[in-house]
Specification:
Helices cover 35% and strands 16% of the residues. The protein is of the alpha/beta class.
Length: 264
């Protein structure tokens, strides 16, 4: 079996395992246009908790009751109390080394658009530019009735009286994609265009089970473009032809890659 045929089975389990790190670094250095796609695993390394599972925030409530238009209209004070705690938890966290490695990589490439399913703003906090947020963000809120008033910042003042209200009198809603809503068309369209035009894609910390983000590397692979996957666990992407899977956390491997590519 040739190296090309065995490419999809390449896995690194130690961050200092030089061979595959060097191979991935060569791919990054040679690529003219790279697009990065990140998921919940990237945030989890910094301590971001989800609202699902045993360790989830407010696990006694259904996610649909806390993250839907119906939930906001039914009990807006409860929902906004939850978002206040969620926002506070995110603001207290710091980006891990993987985020800053992406900043260095972005600076080295000059352009490195980043598509994320995360809403916590940690990429921006680290200094990453050109972040395409598929699921919205926790930084702003807008009128639930779409009155046309500009978005407001999610600061402490907003939570002095719950639920916060728009200047028109309607309840505000966070600018995250809620259950039953479509992803923002502009962000999604650009994500598809990038997947269809890049020379290399990096998929970091995503389980590859959330559509349509999971389809992005498949678009690249169908064009014959290689994909570097960084995830400590195997995913449906890991075994596909054209995928170099680095089986470790982003916080460990990304700094190694930057050091190998740029010597810093």
């Amino acid at each position: 079996m040739s190296a090309e045929e065995d490419f999809s089975r390449s896995v690194v389990t130690e961050p200092h395992s030089g061979g595959l790190i060097a191979e991935a670094a060569d791919m990054i250095g040679a690529a003219g246009s790279i697009v990065v796609s990140t998921g919940a695993g990237m945030s989890r390394e910094s301590g971001v908790r989800t609202f699902r599972g045993e360790e989830g925030l407010w696990k006694e409530y259904r996610a649909e009751d806390l993250a839907s238009i119906e939930g906001i209209r039914k009990d807006p004070a409860l929902v906004w109390e939850w978002y206040r705690e969620r926002l506070k938890a995110c603001q207290e966290l710091e980006p891990h080394a993987g985020y800053y490695a992406l900043v260095s990589m972005q600076n080295g490439k000059g352009i490195l658009p980043l598509i994320t399913q995360n809403v916590d703003g940690l990429h921006q906090k680290a200094g990453v530019k050109d972040v395409i947020e598929l699921h919205g963000n926790l930084r702003t809120a807008s009128c639930i009735d779409s009155c046309g008033v500009s978005r407001v910042q999610m600061t402490g003042d907003l939570f002095e009286k719950l639920p916060p209200r728009c200047s028109c009198g309607s309840i505000l809603r966070p600018d995250v994609v809620l259950f039953g809503e479509q992803l923002p068309e502009q962000a999604l369209s650009r994500a598809f265009r990038l997947a269809d035009s890049c020379d290399l894609m990096m998929v970091i910390g995503t389980s590859m089970v959330v559509y349509p983000a999971s389809s992005l590397p498949l678009i690249a692979l169908r064009r014959g473009v290689k994909v570097i996957e960084i995830n400590p666990e195997e995913t449906p992407l890991s075994s596909l032809d054209g995928v170099l899977s680095l089986r470790y956390t982003a916080g460990s491997v990304l700094p190694e890659l930057v050091k190998a590519v740029y010597g810093v």
